[in-house]
Amino acid sequence: MRKFLVIALFAVFLLISGAFAENKTCEVKINLKWQYNETVNPTIDIKADNESLNFNKYMENNTSLIVRFQGDIQKPFLITIKAPGYQPVTRNFVVDQSGKAVLSVNMNAKESYIIGREITKRASKFLDFKNSDNILVITTAGHVKYKNETTEDAIEGILNELGNSVSFGRGNILLLRKTALDTLDFAFITKKGKNITMAYFRNASFSPVYIGTISENMSMKEYSKLCNSLGKDIAFSIASIANAWALGVSADILREAAFHGHLCAGTICGYAMVETLLKYYPPKGGAMGEGVSYIVLGVPGGSDDDVFVYSMDATPGKRAYIGYNTTNDPNIVGFIRWDSNNKKGTLIVMKYDVKELAEEFKKIYGLNIKEDTPIELKFNSWLVKKLINNPESLVKILYAFDNLTEEQVNYLAGGTSGRTVQSAHGLDMSYILNQTNLVNATPENFMQKKGNLTYDQLKTIGLEAARLAVDIFKQCGINVEKDNLNFLVLTSAGYARLNGQDTSPMWDGIYDILGSRLSRRTLLPVHSALWSPIWFTFILKDGKYNSSILGKIGGFGKFKFNITKDDNLLFAIQIVYDPEKGLVVINDTKGPIYDIGPGWNYTNPSVSKIFKNWNSVITISNGWSYEPPFDMLMVYLFHNHICPGVSPSYLITNYIFQNFPRGKDEKYIYITTTDYCKDDGILLLLGVSPGAGTYYNLRLSDNDTQSPSINGGNMEGILIIWNEKLNIGKAVIITFKWPQFYPGTNSLKAYIDWYKGKDPKGVASPYILTKETEKYITGDELSVILKGSKYLSSGNVLKFIMELPNRQLSDLISVLPISYPTQVTRPTNVSTLISHVITGSSIFTRIIPYISGLGIPIHESISGISGPSGKVGGEIGARGAAQAAGAAGKAYEITPVSKGIGKPGIPFAGIIAVIILIALIAAGYLLRRPEK
Ligand SMILES: [Zn+2]
Ligand SMILES: [Zn+2]
């Protein structure tokens, strides 16, 4: 089917290689025996002498396939049959004198596909899917590994078992972000009237650990039962998302919640902040270095931060998110809108006040919001309604300044582009409020008309785009088959909104025509800001470059290499959806089909000028053609392009998983020191994020991160393995040195080989990954680290960690209660150790200079923004925050120290000492400011 059908009007035709031998027409009939009833059209490849042949293919029915091709009947042929969820089958065969052959092939499903299918069947029995109004599936599949394999096939199994009722475009299959180390879990949820019921399957088991209600109307007793079965975190995670879904929350918000881990007040208020920002300070002027419109200055631990990363595509890897504990209020955020053409910026500072909202809620319903009760779910529902009707009522704009200079952006964010100019200071409110050149910004009042298209209307846009693409390919002699695993659709739909509406139904339209979807790796949504335009690129991987191009230097994005016969031609059509004009095919005289394989610069160089999102499209489609592991493919999408910079993330996280696996009660926190593309991979693969309070971004200057032990290496970041029970952790400084490749090497292929555990070719010197140091740390030391470098006399967090003494875990368990020689009453049993501390253990030398002799009252408010002083934990607020001082897992408002009090192993005195310490550090800092 391949080469001879590509007719002359298709310019690339001339470049395609392949000799036309004197061949006969052959025909092979393949009888397929599927493990499950499948209607899928398998993808095949036929080779002779190791060269792919052209063929025509007919499906007689679901189990019988006829393939015709031209071939030399004297020779053996090699056929490969692939279908999503199934193990590929490769067979040798010969044809008889008349050129015919018959093959019987057993198609065996992959293990995770079977799990997906079988668990769905069980769930259907328990929950009576047929008689329910709607179904939702939340699963860790796609993120976790099962028996060392990625698990996207489990999603395929679920979707095939359920038919049309569940789809990515309906937003009722959600992939809960977890690490490769987590268990393969499935939550099936049905809605019937007001009842929301769930069956939960853990760790690929076919027996559910819970069947019952998860409705917000459940009793406290029922909620306790749910928590006992699943654990509190998972119970809230699933119940919060399911109840929001039942309420009709937009699918893109539900996906953000699956990314964040649950749906909470921070999620809802985060979206309210984004809507308020877009109304008064919409994107403007030239975009910044990596194509982003805003830099977010966050304070990790407030769930809103994940909303910015997700919905604004403000990822740290694109240097669009900087954040560490620069204030005590994690629910405050700064947005820098930078105009790279005019070199001027606007800074908008917003916050949301969960306490205030909770009081309002209490006034109306008489309910006190408490963690781990269904009341929090009711509170969420109330917030959701406010988000829909009046998002601005959820947030406060504290400041909006115009006139921000490049120098000021550099100070706050470390740079205005990909290049780090200096160490970032994050949301430093006292600096901001001391700048005299800033003037109040004039808000616009951009009223976006809210679209009211139905699911079917939105779906039709995707469907029409796919049909149009199929037609154009057909006009050029290429028959695009359904379910083809060599056919890829990239799109901004699902992230980009249309008149404020989620656009993921478009994915379902594409699926109907082409059988493309995420779990098949054939429909890949490219991370985009929700105000981005909607575009689709349809790409067929087919054919090789001919001898006039082979050996030349080609490439894509920042990858340059010699083109080889392993490289593929990628034929692409791009269609943009314009709300006024409808679907527009991107075209110049060389189109509308363009080669975007690594030789594009020889076949049709103008394509780079006319395709939208060119860097995303060309890098992801080429990377996809090399078949990277599914989890890394998700990283590429999240980062929205492939570059050398994102490549180490998989290696770094693998290094972490192998050398520093998480134990019971332990979690990962990652503090980045060198801020570049790889951070997006670390977020996704390590399961950390700013909104969960497990990812911090210091963005230090290059000088500060040079490795003392590896020449040319950099201290990329600090991994903390934090034991939440003991309130003690281990800090590991991770050092990486880039590999070197011989000229002409395709380094992206080399990286993908490394991911797959293979030895790549063309490596001049391999990468180095090692630990610079590994130290046990206390809760208060963690809090120092999370506050960034400026509070340290050495001016460098990395140095602070390296200078910590080498202690054993047992040392810290005994030292913890006597951490600070302050005026706090200590339990008598530790008093004998106090003198040891006072007489100068080096742990405290870096901290004490700021405390000693100040004699100031405890006061944590910075410039009056973070609210009343002495907060030690509200009842509600950002969930799941990583907390320093004495914190329990879920953290609330400021410092949830109260949660730690009375916990076994964490004596009261130590905690109070920590509170005082934090306050003193903050105050000490304030006192020192005027000297500057
Ligand atoms: Zn949250
Ligand atoms: Zn990048």
Automatic annotation (TrEMBL):
<feature type="domain" description="Formylmethanofuran dehydrogenase subunit E">
    <location>
        <begin position="638"/>
        <end position="697"/>
    </location>
</feature>
<dbReference type="Pfam" id="PF02663">
    <property type="entry name" value="FmdE"/>
</dbReference>
<keyword id="KW-0812">Transmembrane</keyword>
<dbReference type="InterPro" id="IPR003814">
    <property type="entry name" value="FmdEsu_dom"/>
</dbReference>
<protein>
    <recommendedName>
        <fullName>Formylmethanofuran dehydrogenase subunit E domain-containing protein</fullName>
    </recommendedName>
</protein>
<keyword id="KW-1133">Transmembrane helix</keyword>
<feature type="transmembrane region" description="Helical">
    <location>
        <begin position="906"/>
        <end position="927"/>
    </location>
</feature>
<keyword id="KW-0472">Membrane</keyword>
<feature type="domain" description="Formylmethanofuran dehydrogenase subunit E">
    <location>
        <begin position="259"/>
        <end position="393"/>
    </location>
</feature>
